[in-house]
Design goal:
single chain; alpha/beta; Rossmann fold; 2 domains; three-stranded parallel beta sheet; globular
Length: about 190
């Protein structure tokens, strides 16, 4: 298999590395800051810039991002990417659709978001300085669903703390990494034949 460069969302990078190592895929993961999700219009330019820096270093580059609110701009970069609208789709597409049908006002956490909630959500949105904005930002949410990939007591506690900060009840759904692994397989093994 040819060496593949993976431009990854920082929220997925550790999962991508672990799956690639376990599967024996010859990939190098190049993460971008997860805070880009707070400004989705900046994702595609960041992917394009990194792709330009990596041009010629790999036989093939792929993107470990879903659309992530870019409105198709990630696709316009011209590199194969993970299928789906967002990382929640990547990890648990059917589970996410079912949760949204049950309660459209669902806020999702992954292992990464539970672990980094204070930095990537709370402080990044300025809620550490202006907590009064919480209700403006999250007024339409009714619950938090933790889509657990590799839950630990620490991650469960972090998810509970995040839900408490949002003032919302928490549910946990074990989804694992299978969805991400299947979609990565399409990209990485497709790169071997592309």
């Amino acid at each position: 298999m040819r060496r593949v460069g993976v431009i990854a969302c920082g929220a997925l990078a550790l999962h991508v590395k672990a799956i690639a190592r376990r599967r024996g895929w010859p990939v190098d993961v190049h993460p971008l800051p997860p805070e880009l999700h707070n400004r989705p219009e900046l994702i595609a330019p960041a992917v394009a810039d990194l792709a330009g820096e990596l041009d010629g270093e790999y036989e093939r580059l792929v993107v470990a991002y879903a659309d992530c609110g870019s409105r198709g701009a990630v696709d316009d970069v011209g590199l194969p990417r993970l299928a789906g609208g967002h990382c929640y789709d990547v990890f648990a597409g059917q589970e996410v659709r079912a949760a949204m049908e049950e309660e459209p006002g669902t806020y999702f956490l992954t292992d990464f978001l539970a672990r980094t909630f204070d930095r990537t959500v709370w402080r990044s949105l300025g809620l550490d300085r202006h907590p009064e904005l919480r209700d403006d930002y999250f007024r339409h949410y009714r619950r938090v669903v933790y889509l657990a990939q590799r839950p630990t007591p620490e991650l469960r506690a972090a998810a509970a703390e995040a839900a408490a900060k949002l003032g919302l009840p928490l549910e946990e759904r074990a989804v694992g990494e299978g969805g991400l692994e299947r979609r990565l397989e399409e990209l990485v093994e497709g790169a071997a034949h592309g």
